[in-house]
Design goal:
It is a single chain. The protein is of the alpha/beta class. The protein has 3 domains: 84 residues, Helicase, Ruva Protein, domain 3, CATH 1.10.8; 165 residues, P-loop containing nucleotide triphosphate hydrolases (Rossmann fold, 3-Layer(aba) Sandwich); 126 residues, Arc Repressor Mutant, subunit A (Orthogonal Bundle). It is built from 17 helices and 9 strands. Helix 9 runs antiparallel to helix 10, helix 9 runs parallel beside helix 11 and helix 13 packs across helix 14.
Length: 412
C-alpha cells in the first residue's frame, strides 16, 4: 500500500457514510426498499391517460425517496419513449414559479412563462405540454410547503384540463394528507382523475432490507440479527432512523476493527445519534420546565408509547396506562392534562391538537419525535427494561384494537 492510498479502515468508514444517508432522501434505487404497492399504483397511473397521482403520508416515511427514484426509472435506457422531471416546492412558490422549474427541468423554453402580460394559466400550460413527444411524468414534491392558495387552485385546474384533453403527461403531487386534501378540495370533479396513493410507514421487512443492503456495501461487514432487529424496532417504520442507527452502529464496529455489527454497537451508536440529532433542542424545549415536580419528560415518553390509530392519533385517555407504568403509580387525566395543553401550545409545539373540547385527538407534529423520545428514554435509563416491555405490549395490543374498531377511509 502506498502512502497516498487510504487506509482500509478509512475506506470502510467512507463506504458506511455512502450506504446510510439519514440526512437526505435516497437517490440510489439499490438502497431504497421497494414499496411494491405504491410503485405499482404510480406506474399504472402513468399508462392511463387522464389519470394523475397524489402521493401522501406522514413526513419521514420515504415519499421523497420514491419521488427521487421514479424519474430515474422513467429516464433509463430501458424506457426510451419515457421522460420525467422532479421539482421541489418551497413556501414562496407560485403557479408561475412551479411551472418555470418544471419546463427548465424538461429542457424546454420558459419565455412564455415570463411574458410581460401577466403570466400563464392552466390552459397555456396544457398547450405547451401537448408538444412533448414522450410520455412524461412530472413529480411536484413537497406540495405542503406551498402557501399560495391560488397556486393550489390553478394546479387543480391544470389537472382538469390535462385530463379533459387526454394529454400524455402525468402529474404526481407529493405531500402530506392536508396538502393533497387542499388540492382536491378545489374541484370535486378532479377526484376521479387523481389516484390517491397512501405512503405508510415502512414494514419490518422493508427496514431490514435497507440495513442488509447498506451493510453489504461495506467491505467485510455483516450484522447479527439482534442488532438489526433492535434498529428496526426503534425506527418505528421511519427510514430516517434506520439509516441513522445503521450508520452509527456501523461506524462503531469499523472503528473497533471488527466485522460484525452487534447489539452493543447499536446501543453505543444511539448515544451519538441522540446528542447530534437536530431534534435535541426540540426535545429539551418539550421536556424542560422551571416548575418543580413537573412531568413533561414522562408525558412525552408516554405519548410516544400511547396506543394510536392508523393516522398516528391518540386521546388523552390513552396516556393513562403508559404514564402509570412510567411513573409507577396510577395517573388520571387531571394530573397530566396541563402538560398536554402546553405540549400542543405555541411555546412548545410538540403535539398538534385537533377536534372539539372533550374529544381532542393529539399527534406528534414531527413523526420523528416519537422514536427519538423512545430511544432517549432507553439510552438515558429513564425507564427500566421491564417497564419498556410493558409499554410495548400496551401500545401493540391497544393500537391493534383501535384499528379493528374503525373503518379505514378510502383515499384521504
Amino acid at each position: 500500500m502506498t502512502d497516498d492510498q487510504p487506509q482500509p479502515k478509512m475506506v470502510r468508514l467512507m463506504q458506511i457514510s455512502q450506504a446510510f444517508t439519514p440526512a437526505a432522501p435516497v437517490n440510489d434505487r439499490s438502497l431504497f426498499a421497494d414499496r411494491p404497492e405504491q410503485l405499482t399504483s404510480c406506474f399504472d397511473a402513468v399508462w392511463q391517460r387522464g389519470l394523475h397521482v397524489a402521493l401522501y403520508g406522514e413526513r419521514g416515511v420515504g415519499k421523497t425517496s420514491l419521488a427521487n427514484i421514479l424519474p430515474k426509472v422513467f429516464r433509463s435506457s430501458d424506457l426510451p419513449t419515457m421522460d420525467a422531471v422532479r421539482i421541489d416546492c418551497n413556501s414562496n412558490d407560485s403557479f408561475k414559479t412551479i411551472w418555470r422549474k418544471v419546463f427548465r427541468g424538461l429542457s424546454r423554453d420558459t419565455d412564455f412563462i415570463d411574458k410581460e402580460d401577466g403570466g400563464i394559466d392552466p390552459d397555456e400550460v396544457r398547450l405547451h405540454l401537448q408538444e412533448l413527444t414522450k410520455t412524461t411524468l412530472i413529480v411536484i414534491d413537497e406540495l405542503d410547503r406551498v402557501e399560495d392558495d391560488e397556486a393550489l387552485s390553478l394546479l387543480a385546474d391544470t389537472v382538469k384540463t390535462l385530463s379533459d384533453h387526454s394529454v400524455n403527461v402525468t402529474l404526481m403531487f407529493v405531500g402530506v394528507a392536508a396538502s393533497v386534501e387542499a388540492l382536491l378540495g378545489e374541484h370535486e370533479s378532479i377526484i376521479r382523475n387523481i389516484r390517491q396513493v397512501h405512503m405508510p410507514r415502512m414494514s419490518r421487512i422493508e427496514l431490514t432490507e435497507i440495513l442488509e443492503s447498506g451493510f453489504n456495501r461495506v467491505d467485510d461487514l455483516t450484522a447479527e440479527k439482534r442488532a438489526i432487529d433492535r434498529i428496526v424496532f426503534e425506527s418505528e417504520g421511519l427510514p430516517h432512523f434506520t439509516h441513522l442507527l445503521g450508520l452509527n452502529a456501523g461506524q462503531v464496529t469499523v472503528k473497533d476493527d471488527r466485522h460484525v455489527v452487534l447489539e452493543m454497537d447499536v446501543e453505543r451508536g444511539e448515544i451519538d445519534a441522540l446528542q447530534g440529532h437536530s431534534l435535541l433542542g426540540e426535545y429539551r424545549r418539550a421536556t424542560s420546565s422551571h416548575q418543580p415536580d413537573h412531568l413533561f419528560e414522562e408525558v412525552v415518553i408516554a405519548c410516544a408509547y400511547a396506543p394510536r390509530d392508523h393516522l398516528g392519533c391518540f386521546r388523552a385517555g390513552d396516556l393513562r396506562e403508559p404514564l402509570s407504568a412510567i411513573c409507577g403509580r396510577d395517573m388520571g387525566i387531571r394530573q397530566f392534562q396541563r402538560h398536554l395543553n402546553e405540549l400542543s401550545g405555541q411555546n412548545r409545539r410538540t403535539l398538534s391538537k385537533e377536534g372539539e373540547p372533550r374529544h381532542y385527538v393529539y399527534r406528534f407534529r414531527n413523526p420523528l419525535f416519537e422514536p427519538y423520545a423512545k430511544i432517549a428514554a432507553q439510552s438515558r435509563n429513564l425507564i427500566t427494561p421491564e417497564v419498556r416491555s410493558t409499554l410495548q405490549s400496551i401500545q401493540a395490543v391497544q393500537s391493534a384494537a383501535i384499528d379493528e374498531s374503525i373503518e379505514r377511509p378510502i383515499g384521504l
